[in-house]
Amino acid sequence: MIGRRKQPFPINRIMGRLAAYGSLFLVSLLIAVPLIWLLITAFKPQTEYMSYPIQFLPSRLYLDNFVQALTMIPFFKYAGQSLFLALTHTILTVITSAMAGFAFARFNVAARNKLFMIIIAMLIVPGIVLQIPQFIVFSRLRLIPSYWPWVLWGLAGSPFYIFLFRQFFAAFPRELEDAAEVDGCGPFRMFWSIFLPNAKPVLATAFMLNFAAQWGDYISPLLFLNDDQTTLAVKLNTGYLSPHGQSLTTIILAAVVLYALPLVVMFFVGQKYILKGIITTGLSGR
């Protein structure tokens, strides 16, 4: 009886995996080093941070940085204004983008594809290019300083989220739409009662990505709001100064940790929805 031939040792496969995991580890380390430095420095006193030679780890956990971060400026006031702007813009953007994506996916009207190509072309326009024209328009409309620009931006939707919703809604079976029409559903009721409740992954993805972008926005509040109306992102840069006008780095970094904490929690809670929402958009359309 001839025995089974022994398979050669898969050395190439093992070396390939080691190279892949090694590359991933190095990239992860490069990304993690600034975050680790941020956390360590946030727990150092200012004098220890300024001392030489540089001491990587703090001699003790200096929690007073976080106390001063909350008390040197009206932290919760500006955090509330950031939350208000982010939620207002996000809710309006998600709703209007979903409606536009539904129209592009399900309505076979003239010039639909050409209009969608214009939407896609807007993705390559950097947002910073539009800041000066928008500032001129809003100033002539006497909407500066106010929160109205965020409302109007939200009502205009987002090209990227319109694309996501369009791809998701295009994958719905035509029979579902036909059954709704037989039951007497109009376009808006069909969208609100059937399509939107089944779009939870894309809704969660668009909400979290847009909220994170608005929460971290620095340029727009700096241009369109005064000091009393502004957001926490702006005050982190201007609010923590010594009596001599020097930046209090350790307190600023402690405030940054508190500022980023809601986004970190939101990501860990909703990361599965982000992945599912992006995957289920697909690349096929009608």
Task: Name the descriptors.
286 residues, mainly alpha, MetI-like fold, 2 domains
Describe this structure in words.
The chain has 2 domains: 11-64; 68-280, MetI-like fold (Orthogonal Bundle), CATH 1.10.3720. The relative contact order is 0.14. It starts with 10 loop residues before the first helix and ends in a 6-residue tail after the last helix. It has helices at residues 11-42, 46-50, 64-71, 75-106, 112-121, 131-140, 148-156, 159-170, 174-182, 187-195, 200-215, 219-224, 232-238, 249-280. It is built from 14 helices and no strands. With 286 residues, it is an all-alpha fold.
The fourth-level CATH homologous superfamily of the largest domain is MetI-like
Broad CATH class of the largest domain: Mainly Alpha
Number of domains: 2
The Rg value, from CA coordinates, equals 25 Å
Number of strands: 0
Per CATH, what is the topology of the largest domain? MetI-like fold
**CATH architecture label of the largest domain:** Orthogonal Bundle
Quick structural gist:
This protein is mainly alpha-helical and 286 residues long. The protein is 69% helix and 0% strand.
Question: What is the element layout, followed by pairings?
Answer:
Elements lengths: L10 H32 L3 H5 L13 H8 L3 H32 L5 H10 L9 H10 L7 H9 L2 H12 L3 H9 L4 H9 L4 H16 L3 H6 L7 H7 L10 H32 L6
